[in-house]
Amino acid sequence: MTVFILLACLGGVLVGLSRQLNGRLSISTTPLIASFWNHAIGFAALTCLGLVVGGLLPAGAAEAPWYAYLGGPIGVIFVAAGSWVIARIGAVNSALLIIGGQMVTGVAFDYISAVPASFWANATGIVLIVGGMVVSRRRRKVGGPQ
């Protein structure tokens, strides 16, 4: 279990770093171009990894429902929106709002899928995340740019 926790934390660090890098590229170009290069370089890296490790076309991939492949286009929107937003509201607020959106979506999917979960614990987590964003925004307005 510890390995999975560490992998999740590493994923969070890498998402934050990726958002910063794409936000910086977005400032020099546009969010769409930043998203394009993010995906083009990611595609090249995944292709090389797939060629080395194997398994680019696993058995059963064609049996997946069509909507299982919508993660790609959704990812394009996520990366482009994140590249645009982070340059305007900052890394902390972007991260808090993204995580808040993920929490709301996760709670909804768990509810729809009948996954046993504590609604109130999840709702409290969402409120704390959004509250952190509000406190962060208020602190910036009172204290000026930081």
UniProtKB/TrEMBL annotation:
List the transmembrane segments.
36-59, 66-91, 111-135
Note the coiled coil stretches, chain numbering: none
Q: Which domain of life is it from?
A: Bacteria
What InterPro entries is this protein classified in?
YdcZ (IPR006750)
Q: Which UniProt keywords apply?
A: Membrane, Transmembrane, Transmembrane helix
Q: Which is one Pfam family of this protein? A: DMT_YdcZ
GO cellular component assignments:
plasma membrane
Q: What is the protein's name according to its record? A: EamA-like transporter family protein
Organism of origin is Rhizobium laguerreae
